[in-house]
Design a protein that fits this description.
2 copies of one chain form a homodimer. In chain A, helix 5 (about 195-200) crosses helix 6 (about 205-215). Helices cover about 35% and strands about 20% of the residues of chain A. Mean pLDDT of chain A is about 85; it is low at about 10-40. Chain A has a 4-stranded antiparallel β-sheet. In chain A, strands 2-7-4-5 form a 4-stranded antiparallel β-sheet. In chain A, strands 9-11-10 form a 3-stranded antiparallel β-sheet. In chain A, a hairpin with a 5-residue loop joins strand 4 and strand 5. The longest helix of chain A is centred in the middle third of the chain and has 27 residues, at about 135-165. By secondary structure, chain A is of the alpha+beta class. Chain A is globular. The relative contact order of chain A is 0.15. The interface between A and B is large, with 43 and 43 residues. The structure holds a DNA duplex.
DNA sequence: CGGGTCCTTGACCCCCCTCAAGGTCTGTGG
DNA sequence: CCACAGACCTTGAGGGGGGTCAAGGACCCG
């Protein structure tokens, strides 16, 4: 999954095999303890973040809004969307525990952010965040690392959108989700709708649904219910995905 | 154009209206003077870069190679490619004067780099580059800024690949090229082949060619020759591009 | 002037989109 | 616990945009 800005956790969350901490404190208006501590400078979200809870489909900010905050997702799933004037939508990425957004340097947000499920986020005013980067040189380097990782994910998504077939796209998507799931993820939760998946993969809901059916029929996945998939043939899926 | 990592010039080259310096010293094995000087720390490419000249279609490095250098394009055009196992190709971006590549933090390059035209580049060993970032905190912040700009371009490209029609893609591509051209660019050079454009826009050469013909027929462009286009109706093009 | 590469155009086909209908799941209220 | 409404998902039938295959034209360079 093309998480927008990968985790700022001290643990290198973009490393393959990363296991997010179990979701706790749903809705709690309190600072979240991070796994692992880092010697010199503290995680800014640990010390100075506000917590914000949002309901399903609620909008956090809209494309074009003044970019006031930098966010990090604590729990739940968030989608980042860009719209064409006539309403066509592209979902840039889905964010989960630990992912960040709003880090672009533009004055305004360049995409909208909406809650896919009810979610909890932390946020820091951008002005304060930028001041922090002046004080803590290591912070800029850590963000550079995260942003570079995001860029790599974006490039993979370009290959997917530019050159892969519908089944390949869906297979790739499932494998990406699995890679972000606890234990490597034989079972994968799909918190988002088929329409969201379609707008992420450059397809329509119908085509996504048909691709799921094909993968099911060929024995690579089982649909436990509409939003929980079991990957029964990981190698077959990887072959169907033509690599990640 | 989705330049991979925008300029490290002291002049903020990702600002709209940026005018690259005229190409000079083609093939010269000497350090290139930069426009503008910056007070505290020097541009690393100014002081410690090797210069490398490559011929048309020559490969600079290949996907998977050990990432030894960070590059900056001095003159010419470079394409960054990703390949699927069966040979399908996606061009991540075209690089021109001032653009950087090789900054990802991975141990290996994640795409190939090839000269579209004969080109001149500067390069710095990654190890030295990273040491520099430790010494000069401002460098990391500048790179963060450049990488974030790249990420924005990548997101625009996702919208293009996921949701735009063939004509919209080509119109968008022409406007992006024009935005990077001297004087805003009523006339735009296309150094790359139709096949390159196709692999950048997620199309085939034939479809790209037909899209050019449609834009020509509807009076928005004139093909002065296969590789030089005049944008005769900028607003019409922008409408045909559906923004971006 | 000749050969090769690249570009354009045409004819045809297929994958995915569109439109439509029916099925499934979920949450809510009785 | 069940009934029901609504949203979501799946499946089918048909159509279209762009891919594929093929041929001819333009350009480049020796």
């Amino acid at each position: 999954m093309a998480a927008h800005l990968a985790a700022l956790d001290s643990t290198a969350s973009h490393r393959p095999g990363y296991v997010p901490a179990p979701i706790a404190m749903r809705g709690a208006a309190k600072v979240i303890a991070l796994t692992g501590t880092r010697a010199p400078e503290a995680d800014p979200f640990e010390t100075m973040a506000e917590t914000q809870a949002v309901g399903r489909d609620q909008m956090l900010f809209s494309e074009g809004d003044a970019a006031r905050h930098v966010y990090r997702v604590v729990s739940g799933t968030v989608r980042l969307c860009k719209l064409l004037p006539d309403g066509r939508r592209q979902i840039i990425g889905f964010l989960q525990h630990g992912d960040m957004m709003g880090l672009s340097l533009a004055q305004n947000y360049l995409y909208s952010a909406e809650a896919v499920t009810s979610a909890v986020l932390q946020r820091i005013p951008r002005s304060r965040f930028e001041a922090l980067m002046d004080e803590q040189p290591a912070l800029a380097r850590r963000l550079l690392s995260l942003t570079a990782t995001e860029l790599v994910a974006a490039q993979d998504q370009m290959v997917l959108l530019g050159r892969k077939t519908a089944v390949e796209r869906v297979a790739t998507f499932l494998l990406r989700l699995a890679a972000r799931t606890i234990g490597g993820g034989r079972r994968v939760q799909l918190p988002m709708s088929r329409a969201d998946i379609a707008d992420h993969l450059g397809l329509t809901t119908e085509t996504v649904s048909r691709a799921f059916t094909k993968l099911k029929t060929s024995g690579m996945i089982r649909l436990l219910d509409g939003h929980l998939v079991e990957l029964t043939d990981r190698e077959g899926l990887a072959a169907a995905a033509e690599c990640a």
